[in-house]
Amino acid sequence: MKNILTVLALAVTGAMSVAATAADPAQPATPAQRATPAQPATQTPAQPATPAQPATPAGAAKSAPQGVSPEAGRTELPPMFKELDQDKDGQISKDEAKRSAETKASFDSMDTDRNGKISLIEWGAADKTKQNSKKN
């Protein structure tokens, strides 16, 4: 009988320690392993953020022509300007202007900034002057 009580006592004691461990989540059942320190990564200098590009309207040129102000409000180039701008840089050079007798003759007066090219702004100003002179 003494052996039975001893076995019973040991069984109860063992069950209690197992129950106590399961009820106490603060103590893990297995010891935690230390994390291996990571190798230091080679650091590269931070790259500055690239500013967001505005959305391009459908049918518009892939890049805005040089000399075009945002307030120009045009998505399409005037047909003659587009035809003369053979290299599609958004400007008409003196060589490109030779394809139109009228543009060739008035090139120097249209090139108001004297950079050897007619920008869309210069083209628009000359076109506006031309239209105003027709009205008067």
From TrEMBL:
Transmembrane segments: none
Biased composition (Basic and acidic residues): 82-102
Low complexity bias spans: 22-66
Keywords, comma-separated and alphabetical: Signal
Keyword Lyase: no
Family annotation (PROSITE patterns): EF_HAND_1, EF_HAND_2
Annotated region described as Disordered, given as residue ranges: 22-115
Domain EF-hand: 98-133
The keyword Signal appears for this protein: yes
InterPro entries cross-referenced by the UniProt entry: EF-hand-dom_pair, EF_Hand_1_Ca_BS, EF_hand_dom
Signal peptide stretch: 1-22
Pfam family, one: EF-hand_5
Protein name from the UniProt record: EF-hand domain-containing protein
Species in which this protein is naturally found: Aromatoleum petrolei
